[in-house]
Sequence to fold (719 residues):
Amino acid sequence: MIGLDARLVGILLSGGLTLMAYSFLYRENRVSRIAEHIYLGAATGYGVVLSAKYVYDNAAVPLAKGNTFWAIPLLSSLLLYFYFSKKHFWLYRLPTAAIIGVGTGIVVAADFRTRLTEQIKATLLPLFVANDPYNTVNNLIIVFGVLGALIFFYFSKELKGPTRTLADFGKYILMVTFGASFGQTFMARISLIIGRVQSLYIWPASILLPLAAVLVGVAIAWDRRKQRTPRVSAGK
Amino acid sequence: MATEKDWTHKLATIDPRVIFLLLLISVAAPLLMPFGLPVGISPPTTSTFKFIEGLPSGSLVVSAFDMSAAVAPECYPQVAAFTTHLKNKNLKIIEVAFDSAGPMFADQALRDVFGASKDHPLYGKNFINLGYIAGGEAAMKTFAGNPKVIQKDFYGKDVKDLEIMQPLSSARDFKLLIVISGSQVDNFVRQFGDPHGVPIVGAVTAVLVTRVMPYYPAKVVGYLNGLRGAAEYEQLVKRPGIALAGMDAQSAAHLLVIIFIIVGNVGYIVRKTRRPS
Amino acid sequence: MKLKVPLAITIILVLLQVTDYYLKVPVINTVAANFTVAILVMSAIAVGIGIISLTRIHVRRIVKKRPHSLESAIMLITLAIFILVGAVLGSGDPSYIYMFQNIIVPLDSAMFSLAGFFMASAAYRAFRVRSREAMILLVAAVIVMLGQAPIGEAFWSGFPILSQWILDVPNTGGVRALIMGIAIGMLSLTIRMLMGHEKGYLGTGA
Fold:
């Protein structure tokens, strides 16, 4: 169990690292770069540990217990490291081709159903719903919105007449989509800022806030002084 | 025409750091001095709540963590809220991760809601953290076809003898799949929803909501819309937390950006009308 | 040979997985499942390539005393600490979880949240109503932002309803068209791979 002291140190550490990353907002500086590099090292190291654990638990241990099937992926994976060899680079292509082949096959087989045929089915909506003008209008917008947006991206031939009108409707539907996407994306980013600021309010991370404010004030004063002091060029 | 001293020029060339500071104040101030605006419950959150509420006691629910640490401030409050609901309904929870950061949040959720994770007496009977399965969508396909493909859980325990894993033969045994994601839900619909008919709930970041909509409500029966969705769910499970506390800051920040957009456009329109044709 | 064999492997495995999805033939299903399970392990081992490349770049920076070599040293030390502690204690150990929660989570979410500040600045500087399309985009964005925050409901109870309608109806139409387009694109890319025209994934010289 982590003791209370360690918990307080953790909060301080977390707050300090947050403020180091946020110093980038004033301007790019060594402190924010250090924070980025700590993150890079930590996240990469963590990813390695989790991947290694997966390989150990699910391949190495069963192989040690006698399940020889696992020798095949373990040995073929070693060919991946010929990526670093100029002479034998082609060996790297063998396991890569297998990974890409399986991955692509899994996705495309299912995608044809999920993102194409099922979506076509979902778009086959009644264009008139008796005694329900609200859903009638909604269905019309969805059906013609999908058709219009798809036609909008048809560039092989100039669109004229009704197809042009439909494409224009599709374009406006796409604008609404992008607007909604912007609103949602902004909401998401603000939520992350809220999360970080909430963590900074927890004791003892909160003692870092006035310290950070003072440091920013010093940086602003320093920059202003540098701007006002004229540079004396050599030779004059 | 606009000159350097013209107010429209000053507005257009304002230092971006002033904008950053104003945004920071708009987030920080309401967290210290909340104004307590009521948070309504949206239909997708209600759908999610009702679906879980309708599950019989003892049903198997899978929480699939496909989230990175970056989206934790948005997604973790959702996880805490719905895990509370799953506990209150006495549902069996299998936590699995398809992103390497997932198992950590799965563990944190168990500790926050049940008080302990691997050391809890009900671990292995009522809930389990299977840890990370590498391979992305290939991992999802494998797990959906045979959940017992995992040998050990996140803490290194053998899973094959654990009570909660016994009745599992495929994803068809899951009564619900809760996807916690910041990147996509399409892969879960492809590998769990369509082939196995598993109902899916999305505990997703706000960015992802627009991409969930084509599957809602046929495949994705409900979703939680970012931090707002977490705040709504906290109210429904009567467990107010950091999501609800953050809603005033969300309001202030949204209002500020709308004001920025309006002010920016006012300056633009005035400059445009002044320009000689 | 050095290109034809990998291409053949890709083609065979793509066809195997597609056949496995649509047909219930026990032999094919078993072979496809075995390949899938093997690939999971191979993908995990492939992470090592990234680590080696990253280490090489940063060690070279330190040895040649290039700018930011201090940051590179810090990165390598942090990498080593996380790998060693994880290897010795295990990823499920409370100490390792502590390191994750207090180092990776705050940094990852802080850096991701920086985009929010730049979005606000961009919204102020660049979000201009230059055309009808821009106006529609702007209005939709404002309605969604007001609808999703409690303050919108405080101004007018219709904002959340309008915002939800935008997500449910026009957004669904637009996104559905986009994902159908992506699916068609994915299909055409796969056909190109099966015909051997798409070789970029095989690295340099392909």
Remarks:
- The first helix of chain A runs from residue 4 to 22.
